[in-house]
Automatic annotation (TrEMBL):
The keyword tRNA-binding does not apply. GTP binds at residues 39-44, 180-186, 205-209, 274-277, 333. This is Uncharacterized protein. One of its GO terms (molecular function) is metal ion binding. GO terms for cellular component: cytoplasm; heterotrimeric G-protein complex. Residues 11-24 have a biased composition (Basic and acidic residues). Residues 1-24 are annotated as: Disordered. Pfam families: G-alpha. Gene3D superfamilies: GI Alpha 1, domain 2-like, P-loop containing nucleotide triphosphate hydrolases. Mg(2+) binds at residues 43, 186. GO terms for biological process: adenylate cyclase-modulating G protein-coupled receptor signaling pathway. It comes from Triparma laevis f. longispina. Keywords: GTP-binding, Magnesium, Metal-binding, Nucleotide-binding, Transducer.
């Protein structure tokens, strides 16, 4: 499967006549589309499908993953170091010894940072193992990490800095929990087919950031089910591509336009409210009602279930078709047993609906 061609606005397809529905025309292949905003967890679910039903990573792929993880560490250090550099009160927390190490990071990683040359950045960064380990334990970096929602740091990548020794070692072999935590932004459309319980499923993963949504359009035909992924934990964060827009609001808007799209009138919608592990941690200290876009929240403050139910209601309210059901799952895409369990019930829904559509049930 190559990269889809572009279209001005992939999700504004109200004017377009839906062509055909895959369930009627392509009984052999069941096409599943992963949709959602950037960083919601689509590719992580795509990776889980391979862990559950596909081939293990080859040696060459594992080597590439090692480099990706080193680049992810570097990006995290860059995000936190910028914060420590720019926030005077946080910068003041550095002790004299830590400041020496920090200056080295600024000289060698921040000043020379070239976002087109990931490998060089990572090499500079990995060479500063002693300095980075000292800083990662410092009060300044702990404070920067606790305020990461206002940086580009990826939640969960603290695991990489906690395992820095292992990751810089020349014998580092990527374990599966690092594979699932690694992050590469998807920029086109990729697909993979799996035979599961005698049926052929083809899953499509797309780039979720705004710019890449223009590649979505050509994948809209023949879709049996959409897995729409939205990150629960991002209710207090702004979009990477537009710092004025709340990430959860963007996910809600996108979900609404997917439901509205004529192509998907008869498509099963599986909504994965993802990153429940990060949401569980965050909700203890972050208040939903304090977010401008969610000031109508009247549930219990700092309560996991009330928070989750509030967001479920927001998403499901967009479904105005009484004949269409939105199947909601609360997920942790980095947890293989959770995704295996959730996928088991999704598969049953999809297979049943596929049989009904082909008149065999
Ligand atoms: N802790 C935790 N991290 C998650 C979860 N789901 C995804 N992540 C992490 O979030 C980051 C982004 O996930 P991706 O799967 O790359 O997101 P995406 O939706 O494919 O993003 P785009 O390709 O930009 O559209 C990765 O570092 C993942 O490991 C989750 O449930 N819990
Ligand atoms: Mg992706």
């Amino acid at each position: 499967m190559g990269v889809c061609t572009s279209s001005p606005d992939p999700i504004d397809a109200k004017q377009q006549k839906p062509k055909k529905n895959g369930k009627e025309n392509d009984a052999e292949k069941i096409k599943l589309l992963l949709l959602g905003c950037g960083e919601s967890g689509k590719s992580t679910i795509f990776k889980q499908m391979r862990i559950l039903h596909g081939k293990p990573q080859s040696a060459a792929e594992l080597l590439r993953l090692r480099d990706i993880i080193r680049a992810n560490c570097t990006m995290l250090i860059v995000a936190l170091a910028h914060f420590v550099k720019d926030e005077a009160s946080v910068n003041a927390l550095l002790s004299a010894g830590e400041r020496k190490s920090f200056d080295k990071i600024v000289d060698s990683v921040l000043s020379d940072f070239d976002d087109k040359n990931v490998e060089t950045n990572a090499n500079h960064c990995m060479a500063l193992q002693t300095e980075l380990q000292l800083l990662w334990k410092s009060a300044a970096f702990k404070e920067a990490w606790s305020r990461r929602a206002s940086t580009d740091a990826i939640d969960g990548h603290n695991t990489f800095l906690d395992s820095f020794d292992e990751i810089v070692s020349k014998d580092y072999e990527v374990p599966s929990h690092h594979l699932l935590l690694s992050r590469v932004r998807t920029e086109g459309v990729i697909s993979h087919s799996y035979i599961i319980d005698g049926a052929e499923f083809e899953m499509f993963d797309v780039g979720g950031q705004r710019y890449f949504r223009k590649t979505w359009f050509d994948c809209f035909e023949d879709v049996a089910a959409i897995i729409f992924v939205a990150s629960l934990s991002e209710f207090d964060q702004m979009l990477a591509e537009d710092k004025s827009k709340n990430r959860m609001t963007e996910a809600l808007d996108l979900f609404s336009s997917v439901l509205d799209n004529n192509y998907f009138e008869k498509t099963d919608i599986l909504l994965f409210l993802n990153k429940k592990d990060l949401f569980a941690n965050k909700i203890r200290t972050s208040d939903i009602a304090a977010q401008t876009d969610f000031s109508d929240y009247s549930g219990k403050p700092n309560d996991f279930d009330s928070g989750v139910n509030y967001f479920i209601d927001k998403f499901v309210a967009f479904n105005e078709d009484p004949e269409r059901q939105v199947f909601v799952h609360i997920t942790c895409a980095t947890d293989t047993s959770n995704i295996s369990f959730v996928w088991g019930s999704c598969k049953e829904i999809i297979l049943e609906s596929n049989l009904k559509a082909s008149g065999l049930f």
